[in-house]
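User: Fold this; tokens only.

Assistant: Input:
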Amino acid sequence: MLCSLTRHTKAFVVILFVLPAFAFSQQKNLDYFIEQGIQNSPLIKESNNAVFLNRIDSLRILAAYRPQVNGVSNNYYAPVIHGYGYDEIITNIRNFNEQISATKTFVGKRNLQIQFNGIQLLNDSISIAGKITEQDLRRTITAAYVAAYGSWRQLKFNNEIYNLLSSEDTILKKLTQASVYRQTDYLTFLVTLQQQHLTKTEAKQQYQNDYATLNYLCGLVDTSFTPLDSPHIELQQLPDYNNSIFYKKFTTDSLLLKNASQQIALAYKPKLSVTADAGYVSSLTFTPYKNFGLSAAVNLTIPIYDGNQRRLQYQRLNILEQTRVSNKDFYTNQYHQQVAQLSQQLQTTNQIISETNEQLKYVHTLIDANRKLLITGDVRIADYIIAISNFLNSENTITQNVIKQFQIITQINYWNKQ
């Protein structure tokens, strides 16, 4: 048994991740959950549909300036009975209109182009918002995956520790029966073993909760639990902030406000339209069979006074522009501050991981030495338990900081979207 334990000492230190005592399905990675989350997200679907709706609106603008043809039927009858009724000079008693009417509004190319530019800018704004929503979703799912992976790593580690202590229990029980160790020393070890079993159970529950949260965020209905691969998150080179999708949002908002100002100006330009109709209009009084005909009209509308509505609309746009500039400056400062702070945190975390790994080498050497002395009864069980405790603390520190490292990198990479 000693030789077997010695052969597995190195595996114990680097923590080969063995499966826990419950069943798992096929292993899944971070890309799988992100893909499922994006595919199932109603917000992203809504954003994509909004772009399609705006394309339809641009076609409707073109359709609105084409000739509009309508069939018109107005039929009127006002009888005079025994001298009582509407004045027939005014009403002609009866009037029948059966016409087809066509109306055409004339607009310049500049007018159409400004309206199309507005639709395109709105599409750009929606597309940018959709990309930011997707980036937010990626960050949220990644954070949930990292948390679940940390729980999974803790579970595998605690399961490995419990299995190793269970193997030690068999040896120590025999040595205690042979009076190599006192009964109280063995009971101390047994309490440690039971505590480790409880820790393993709690780790399993935590992993199940974190995994369920991950499925919930991705819109997945799945009660099984699978092993989780390392997120393999690498720090990415951030683009210049002015080229990021977050800055483009403010640029597009500025263009939208300028386009709105242009559309206000166009709304106060003279408008020319032509109307023509053909059909049958008759009172059926004189030669009704000759009342087929046609007509045409030219309409010119020149805005003169609107109660200062145009000035108020421009004031509203100026306030919106001031708000946009204020938000842009705030978020730009926030971006630089956050990236600098996260970079400092990442540097500190990397240093802690490096120092803890160095400490772990000494802890392993101590455990290996104590294990050899444990067989001969030359080391106290309490000292061996302390060594195991130090090993647990070191591994927990590494796991927590590895997870923190992934989380910080995720926060930094969030800003890399172009």
